[in-house]
Design goal:
By secondary structure, the chain is α/β, with parallel strands linked by helices. It contains ten helices and seven strands.
Length: 262
């Protein structure tokens, strides 16, 4: 298998690396606990990627239940099926847009989406679709970040603020979606809303780069003319110096927002 033959491979490797981190495992576990999954439940993951969360849910709902995942990326769905092969877990995967789910009304007890809404062109339509396919009394959960709340310690903080501003306002489609989720779910008619903040800390520049991609965003800001090339180079060099000295620190904020369909 080569990267040229399989363009999804680099992204998959990066996502697997992120998933393996203790902080990721912790919030994944917390988000599933919030859903209160039980044996026999029908579970949907919108934007399931390679299907790991679907398989985690399938182990809870058991053979009397079902765990389904959809993703717009056909290569991700193919990988999900590959990983599920031979497990005998009650899973199903298909390629689908978030704003037009291929399921009848009230098909699931629980619908959720993790770190997907920041990329969607129409988050309102996506949440409406998740609610449509969820039974009355079922739970709907969206987990996502608020990139404007990203903090990175640096001796040139003004450059960091420019990079975060570019990332929030231009590089990520919905960079402030984290703070918007409670209003989004409330306006869609969900009741009994709960909001759980997620703060993730980084003491390693490499891991933070894998999760957040600040180097990529800083270079994009330079190419867009938002920042001068020397400013970007100085800021990145400062982060590397902080790392070398054992003083690197950054933190990102996200939210688990959940409601009940009435």
């Amino acid at each position: 298998m080569t990267t040229h033959e399989h363009p999804f491979l680099p992204a998959l490797q990066r996502l697997d690396s992120i998933r393996a981190a203790a902080a990721t495992r912790s919030y994944k576990r917390q988000s599933l606990e919030c859903l209160q999954l039980a044996a026999g439940d029908h579970f949907l993951d919108v934007g399931c990627g390679s299907g790991d969360d679907v398989m985690s849910a399938a182990r809870i709902v058991g053979t009397g239940g079902k765990a389904a995942g959809v993703d717009i990326n056909s290569a991700a769905i193919a990988e999900a099926w590959r990983r599920a092969a031979g497990t005998a877990l009650p899973v199903d995967f298909c390629v689908s847009n978030a704003d037009e789910l291929p399921f009848p009304d009230q098909s699931f007890d629980v619908s959720r989406s993790d770190r997907v809404f920041q990329h969607l062109a129409d988050p309102e339509r996506a949440i409406d679709e998740m609610i449509r396919v969820t039974r009355r009394g079922g739970r709907v959960q969206v987990v996502d970040a608020d990139w404007e709340a990203l903090v990175i310690d640096s001796s040139v903080p003004e450059i960091g603020r420019e990079v975060i501003g570019y990332m929030t306002g231009r590089a990520v489609r919905n960079g402030r979606i984290g703070r918007q989720l409670p209003g989004l779910l409330s306006r869609a008619g969900l009741a009994s809303l709960t909001v759980v903040p997620l703060a993730r800390t980084f003491f390693d520049l490499k891991l933070m780069e894998e999760v957040v991609g600040v180097r990529r965003h800083a270079e994009a800001a330079r190419e867009a003319g938002v920042l001068a090339a020397d400013a970007v180079e100085n800021w990145l060099a400062d982060l590397e110096a902080q790392q070398a000295a054992g003083r690197f620190f950054a933190a990102a904020l996200g939210f688990i927002v959940q409601g009940q369909k009435s």
